[in-house]
Design brief:
The chain is of the alpha+beta class and 234 residues long. It has 2 domains: 5-74, no CATH class; 111-232, Chitinase A, domain 3, CATH 3.10.50.40. Helices cover 43% and strands 18% of the residues. It is built from 6 helices and 7 strands; from the N terminus they run H-H-H-H-E-E-E-E-H-E-H-E-E. Strands 1, 2, 3, 4, 5, 6 and 7 form a 7-stranded antiparallel beta sheet that branches. Helix 1 packs across helix 2 and helix 1 (5-20) crosses helix 3 (57-69). The protein is elongated and about 70 Å long. It starts with a helix and ends with a strand.
Length: 234
C-alpha cells in the first residue's frame, strides 16, 4: 500500500484529534457545521484505522487545538516537519511489510482454492484461468467487449465477505464491458442476456497485487462474483 506523506499524516492528525475529543462532542448534531465536523472526524478516523496509523489521540488533539487557537507550538517548525516525515516513513515500511505478507498468503490461498474449485461439477475453466459456473442460462444475445451492459451482481472474497453488491443496493449498474477488470470483460461475453453466472476470478484477471489502498480487496486476492446479465445497453 502506498501512503501519501501529507495525506496520511494529516488524516491521522485530524482523525485522532476528532476521536480524542469525542466525549465532548454535542449530544445532537444540530447545525451543518456540527454535522460536517463530525463527518470529517469520523471519516478520517476510519481511514486512519484502516491504514494502521498508530498515534496518540490526546497529544494530537493538543496539537490541533494549539494550531487552531494560534498558540505557540511545543516544537520548532523544522522539528515538526522532521518528525512527521520520519513517522510517515515508518508507516510506509510497516504497511509494505504487511502488504507483502498478505500478498503471499492470498496468492497461496487463491491457488489452492482454484485448483480444488475447477474439479467441482459444473465449473468450467477457460484458457485464461477464469472459472465460471452457470446458475441460469438465458436465451438472449451475448454482448461484445465493445458493448455497454446492465447487470446485477454481488462480489465476495474467498472468506464469504461481500465487498460490493448492486443487489443489496437495489439498483442494477450499467458499464462498458471493456472498462472493467479482465475477468468481467471475458466472463460476461460468455453470457446470453437473461443468464446468471458465478465467476471465480484469479487475481491476475482482477486487481492483481495492487488493489485500491485501504479497500476490502487485498493484494493477489481471488474474487467471486454472481452476475445477472439483464440487458445489453443502459
Amino acid at each position: 500500500m502506498k501512503v501519501s506523506l501529507c495525506v496520511a499524516v494529516a488524516t491521522g492528525l485530524l482523525a485522532a484529534s476528532a476521536m480524542a475529543q469525542e466525549p465532548a462532542a454535542p449530544a445532537q448534531l444540530k447545525s451543518l457545521k456540527d454535522k460536517a465536523s463530525y463527518g470529517y472526524g469520523y471519516s478520517m478516523g476510519r481511514n486512519m484505522k484502516t491504514q494502521g496509523i498508530d498515534l496518540d489521540p490526546a497529544i494530537l488533539a493538543k496539537g490541533l487545538a494549539d494550531g487552531l487557537g494560534g498558540s505557540e507550538a511545543l516544537m520548532k517548525d523544522a522539528e515538526i516537519q522532521a518528525s512527521i516525515q520520519e513517522f510517515a516513513k515508518q508507516i510506509q515500511a510497516k504497511q509494505a511489510g504487511m502488504a507483502g505478507q498478505a500478498a503471499a498468503s492470498n496468492k497461496a490461498e487463491g491457488e489452492k482454492f482454484l485448483a480444488a474449485n475447477k474439479k467441482k461439477p459444473g465449473v468450467v475453466t477457460t484458457p485464461s484461468g477464469l472459472q465460471y459456473k452457470v446458475i441460469k442460462q438465458g436465451t438472449g444475445p451475448k454482448p461484445k467487449a465493445s458493448d455497454t451492459v446492465t447487470v446485477h451482481y454481488e462480489g465476495k472474497l474467498l472468506d464469504g465477505t461481500v465487498f460490493d453488491s448492486s443487489i443489496k443496493r437495489g439498483e442494477p449498474i450499467a458499464f462498458p464491458l471493456n472498462g472493467v477488470i479482465k475477468g468481467w470483460t471475458e466472463g460476461v461475453q460468455l453470457m446470453p442476456v437473461g443468464s446468471t453466472y458465478q465467476f471465480f476470478i484469479p487475481s491476475e484477471l482482477a486487481y492483481g497485487a495492487n488493489p485500491r489502498p485501504g479497500g476490502p480487496i487485498g493484494p493477489n486476492a481471488v474474487l467471486t462474483f454472481e452476475v445477472q446479465l439483464l440487458k445489453i445497453g443502459e
